[in-house]
């Protein structure tokens, strides 16, 4: 099951900070230079240039989608071999490769990859760094340890994705069960009453045909009473329907963006959402859902901001993204968003400059 899961990039969510800050440990690349004779200027320039090349390749590789990852890993591996020729510090690069491999690939593939790397280190040890055992020991330990970190990060990420999927499935099942309950309740409430109304209507019709006006009026009055009673019971049943909780829906949308490797800056004021009526909550959640769907389908954004706050007796929701591929013409989705805003006496503004921003304003009654 885990094999079919699409892992988020190492530059998404909380992984982004670690992926960049871990470059600090790459400075161990220069440690071997401190324990031996300093190379001449040309060799030093080459060593420094190879390090800058590694940093550039590493930052490029962690941004690559899975189907292009081998290109980045191949380039990093080649650079690691070349750097090891000039300095034992090149061993550091193999560790970063091992971490990426451990995170993205399944056990069999990643293990074969690491075996290949270790075999390469043995060749380098015997051919280039003969007599310098510390090169092989340091590089092998570095590779194995960082590979282990990559594998653990992979397992944790898969576990989080599975938990999120299970929560989504449970939410769907709950919604289905709620619809079925509503259907049963409406059937029970309306079934008998509609049968009685139909029967009374037929009786009234026959009485009118026979000229029994007074009796027909009684049946019509009974029809009115039955219909009012049915309407009251239907309202009571519908009032038990759970409205769409805006905070839960917004949280779900944030998780959905994160699962698609989009960095989300969310600030959801729960007390502000609590000021809305059930209808306003539902419409806000549906507008947010449509806006996020548009971002996922039509934008190449990698950062989204979602804010809910209060200002001047209004609840505001702002959704903005940094995508460039935007829809030039407003379709039915955006038209529906505007209609939902109007239904709750709100206003919806959509601006498109250097970024796209959806701004919903909902007036609320404060006590």
What does this structure look like?
With 367 residues, the protein is of the alpha+beta class. It folds into three domains: 2-164, no CATH class; 171-238, Up-down Bundle (Single alpha-helices involved in coiled-coils or other helix-helix interfaces); 246-363, 2-Layer Sandwich (Heat Shock Protein 90), CATH 3.30.565.10. Helix content is 64%, strand content 10%. It has eleven helices and five strands. The chain has helices at residues 15-21, 41-61, 69-86, 91-104, 107-127, 133-209, 213-238, 246-259, 270-273, 278-298, 332-343, and strands at residues 263-268, 303-311, 314-321, 347-352, 356-363. It has a five-stranded mixed β-sheet with strand order 1-2-3-5-4. Helix 3 (69-86) packs antiparallel against helix 4, helix 6 runs antiparallel to helix 7 and helix 10 (278-298) runs antiparallel to helix 11. The longest helix is centred in the middle third of the chain and has 77 residues, at 133-209. The mean pLDDT is 83.
């Amino acid at each position: 099951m885990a094999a079919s899961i699409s892992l988020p990039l190492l530059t998404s969510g909380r992984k982004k900070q670690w992926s960049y800050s871990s470059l600090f440990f790459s400075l161990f690349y220069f440690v071997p230079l401190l324990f031996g004779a300093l190379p001449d200027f040309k060799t030093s320039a080459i060593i420094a240039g190879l390090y800058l090349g590694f940093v550039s390749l590493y930052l490029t590789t962690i941004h690559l989608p899975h189907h292009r990852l081998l290109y980045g890993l191949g380039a990093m591996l080649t650079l690691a071999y070349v750097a090891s020729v000039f300095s034992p510090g090149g061993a550091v690069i193999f560790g970063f490769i091992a971490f990426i491999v451990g995170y993205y690939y399944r056990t069999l593939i990643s293990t074969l990859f690491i075996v290949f790397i270790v075999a390469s280190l043995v060749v380098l040890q015997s051919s280039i760094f003969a007599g310098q055992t510390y090169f092989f020991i340091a590089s092998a330990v570095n590779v194995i340890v960082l590979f282990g970190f990559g594998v653990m990060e992979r397992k944790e990420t898969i576990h989080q994705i599975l938990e999120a999927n299970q929560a989504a499935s449970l939410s769907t099942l709950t919604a289905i069960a709620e619809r079925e309950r509503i259907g049963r309740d409406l059937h029970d409430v309306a079934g008998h009453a509609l049968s009685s109304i139909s029967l009374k209507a037929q009786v009234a019709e026959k009485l009118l045909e026979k000229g029994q006006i007074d009796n027909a009026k009684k049946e019509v009055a009974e029809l009115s009473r039955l219909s009012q009673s049915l309407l009251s019971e239907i309202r009571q049943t519908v009032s038990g329907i759970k409205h769409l909780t805006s905070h839960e829906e917004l949280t779900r949308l944030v998780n959905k963006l994160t699962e698609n490797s989009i960095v989300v800056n969310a600030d959801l004021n729960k007390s502000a959402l609590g000021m809305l009526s059930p209808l306003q909550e539902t419409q806000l959640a549906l507008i947010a859902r449509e806006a996020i769907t548009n971002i996922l389908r039509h934008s190449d954004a990698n950062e989204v901001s979602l804010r809910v706050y209060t200002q001047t007796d209004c609840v505001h929701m702002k959704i903005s993204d940094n995508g460039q591929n935007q829809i030039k013409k407003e379709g039915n989705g955006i038209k529906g968003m505007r209609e939902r805003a109007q239904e709750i006496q709100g206003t919806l503004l959509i601006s498109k400059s250097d970024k796209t921003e959806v701004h919903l304003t909902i007036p609320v009654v404060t006590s």
